[in-house]
Design a protein that fits this description.
heterodimer; A: mainly alpha; Globin-like; 7 helices; B: mainly alpha; Globin/Proto (chain B); heme (chain B); Globin-like_sf (chain B); metal-binding (chain B); Globin (chain B)
Chain lengths: 163, 153
Amino acid sequence: MKSLIAFVCLVAAVNYCCADHVCGPLQRLKVKRQWAEAYGCGNRREEFGHFIWAQVFKEAPAARDMFKRVRGDNIYTPAFRAHATRVLGGLDMCVALLDEEPVLNTQLAHLAGQHSTRGVEAAHYETFEHCVMLGIEHEIGSEVFDQDAWKPCLKVITGGIQG
Amino acid sequence: PGLASNSCTTEDRREMQLMWSNVWSAQFTGRRLAIAQAVFKDLFAHVPAAVDLFKNVNGENVDSNAFKAHCIRVVNGLDSAIGLLSDPSTLNEQLSHLATQHKARSGVSKAGFAAIAQSFLRVMPQVASCFNPDAWSRCFNRITEGMTDGLPA
């Protein structure tokens, strides 16, 4: 009986540990490394951005309306590609600053100011997080993609933008 | 264009992207801030009056979090543009977006961009090995020409 209780406690402890992932210092380093690999440089970035936004609008077709000013109706246009570049550039800044927390928080506050009037809902951020993770996995491969690091660390970023 | 043309060629673009990606990747902790701050410190040392343009991001204190975050945004903007040199039509959209953002800031001029271009030329060789100033300058100018469209001289 004692060993059963010990076993149950162990299972509970394991579940607790793994249901409660944190964006700790090690996770931040891993995310930075995996992001750098996925984001790359030059041309490949546009394919990366295209993959993410195609996924976003597949999961949330109505979200296109929020991007009228930058041709959200057609993500193949230079106007939308430039927009996607800006979004990924913004995400790149945040990821790069994950280990410079005071500067990261200043930057997140800046991004929060840019988003506060746009009517972005919590569910939109969740869709975006999910699609970014799909994009990362697509670039670096499912064998190495660390979801337990990405999920909480992306939350740090989108949570900050939501203010 | 002839051989002595000032245009940013495909070879120049590739070279600039390589020089840049070797110093600016997200994985290098602290490196970005060091480079971005060095550029602005150099700018302010050469053009002291420029400090006033960055009042709302605490330009008087280059080590403040507000100014560090600003430095990162500016050089990240350059990073996006360098990446887009591979796709001129998207680059043009992005540069006109940046031009609009700069037109809204009074005191920002073409001469200001020429000054920060010089700062990059002084900072980059210190951090990038095998730096090619000619290719860098041609492509840097390609970017700033689009960004300064409509700004005062």
